[in-house]
Amino acid sequence: MLYFWDRFYHTVSENIRNAEACDWLSGPRVIKVPLVPLTPPSAPSEDFHSFIMGTILRALSFLALLCLAEAKQKDFYSFKLVNSRGRLVSLEKYRGSVSLVVNVASECGYTEEHYKDLQQLQKDFGPFHFNVLAFPCNQFGQQEPGSDKEIDSFVRRVYGVSFPIFSKIAVVGIGANNAYKYLVEASRKEPTWNFWKYLIDTDGKVVDAWGPEVSVKEIRPRIADMVRKLIIKRKEEL
């Protein structure tokens, strides 16, 4: 392409110089513009294809590393998640407290018993640096079909829930939320149904995990012991 414009420029310049050398009374001069055949662009070389593919692969690798780094946060309280009202919440606000993380569903056979017992936990231990953190999930039996607003309204109206309800997420599979990926990796226990319970200590580390067949009442003594020790520790620090 540069070669074409170079030839065009020199030819036109030469014609103009010839025209200026002639007597201006001899009439108009015709400037000949060369017709330079254009060579169609050649197909991209293999080196070009290799360069493009290499660039794409490097970009994808970088994105994968970012996702992996996020999934490998040092503890559960390092994550940020959206609550049922659409607000981004940093779990750092729960650092220093004991938490019970539960994937909940509104239409499960375990729903009523778990919600009632979870709310009782929150009522009894909430004032002493304890929180139930509920994460709606529709992956098991499609038993949480409602919107975040509908879920939040339902559990607060029917079960009087006062603990935090987060936005609906996936807890298993490729699309699992990174916070749950951390829980699974740390505990080596993956949810297989609704109402899996992960007990988190004050530093955001997973202490233990139980499936839905283990009732909240059964793990209550474990939670009570952790809360008791936390109360004693805080008193000693005063």
TrEMBL record:
Highest taxon listed in the record's lineage: Eukaryota
Catalytic function, reaction form: 2 glutathione + H2O2 = glutathione disulfide + 2 H2O
An example molecular function term from Gene Ontology annotations: glutathione peroxidase activity
Annotated SUPFAM superfamilies: Thioredoxin-like
Keyword field: Oxidoreductase, Peroxidase
Protein's UniProt keywords contain Oxidoreductase: yes
Signal peptide (residue range): none
Pfam families documented for this protein: GSHPx
Family label: Belongs to the glutathione peroxidase family.
Name this protein carries in UniProt: Glutathione peroxidase
Originating organism: Cyprinus carpio carpio
Lineage: Eukaryota, Metazoa, Chordata, Craniata, Vertebrata
